[in-house]
Amino acid sequence: MISREEIRNLAQLARLKLTEAEEENLQKDISSILDYVGQISAVSGQGSKQGETLLSDSKVSPCLLKNVMREDVLYENTPISGKREALLAALPKRYGDFAVVRKVIQKDAE
Asked: Does residue 42 sit in helix, strand or coil?
């Protein structure tokens, strides 16, 4: 189970202010999620092809999972079509075609 201290650390990294009750609920929820991910990791590689996994745990109904990839498609008639430069110009700080934001994964930031 994830510790209360780890929950507080995650909350600090995400810049969240949690009550004791929220910390307790989050501790239970994240522990459940990590247990589930552990179950998936345990059966990883048992599929018939690379990228496919057969889940047969009693808590998870058997199903075949596989990665589905599709081609990236550029749509011309979207609400922001042709407004790329205007959007980039509106950024408070940018580096070329990228938005510059402050670092958020830092333990001592409040």
From this structure: helix
C-alpha span between 96 and 85 (Å, rounded): 11
Q: How far is CA 76 from CA 62, 80, 84, in A?
A: 41, 9, 12
pTM for the full predicted model: 0.43
Closest listed residue to residue 44, CA positions, set 36, 35, 32, 55:
55
Structure tokens at 107: 């333990």
52 vs 44: CA distance, rounded Å: 8
Q: Using an 8 Å Cβ cutoff, are 38 and 31 in contact?
A: no
pLDDT in tens, the chain (110 residues): 899 999 999 999 999 999 999 999 999 999 999 999 888 887 765 555 544 445 544 454 455 556 788 888 877 777 777 788 888 889 999 999 899 988 877 666 55
CA 93/CA 107 separation, integer angstroms: 24
